Amino acid sequence: MKQTPLLPEDPYQKAMARFWIRFGENKAIVLQSIRFGVLLTEGKEQQEATLIALQNLKYLEEELRGKKFFGGEKIGLVDLALGWLAYYLEIYEEVSGAKLLNPVH
């Protein structure tokens, strides 16, 4: 049975994978801006938090552009670490009323 490594063998690609995992874990950047900024605020504060969340999601989207997974054609640790985010975005939208997803993308 062929195994798929969780991290790329190439040192640069491995460093980039670790960067994106850390980016996703960083509470001040992605997760907290969505969770607390969008869900627990209203009005102008929610709009500002939504813009921050959208900018951070854009970084992830740009990294994925044209690829099936963060690592290309094979699932890896970054996909496993951040994969849950796409599932919860619809829930965040429903609970907060804020628009985070663009059906065109």
Structural account:
GO terms for molecular function: glutathione transferase activity. The structure is a single chain. This protein has helices spanning 11-25, 27-39, 43-64, 77-82, 84-96. It has 105 residues and is mainly alpha-helical. The chain has a single domain, classed as Glutathione S-transferase Yfyf (Class Pi), Chain A, domain 2 (Up-down Bundle). α2 (27-39) packs across α3. The termini are far apart.
Provide the succession of SSEs. Answer: HHHHH
The chain-level mean pLDDT equals: 79
Strand coverage percent = under 5%
**Shape type:** elongated
The radius of gyration computed from the alpha-carbon positions, rounded to a whole number of angstroms, is: 15 Å
User: Can you tell me the residue ranges where pLDDT is under 50 for at least 5 consecutive residues?
Assistant: none
Distance between the termini: 35 Å
By DSSP (H or I, 4+ residues per run), the number of helices equals 5
- Tally of structural domains: 1
**What characterizes the major β-sheet?**
none
Quote the CATH topology.
Answer: Glutathione S-transferase Yfyf (Class Pi), Chain A, domain 2
Label this structure with key terms.
105 residues; 5 helices; glutathione transferase activity; elongated; Glutathione-S-Trfase_C-like; mainly alpha; Glutathione S-transferase Yfyf (Class Pi), Chain A, domain 2
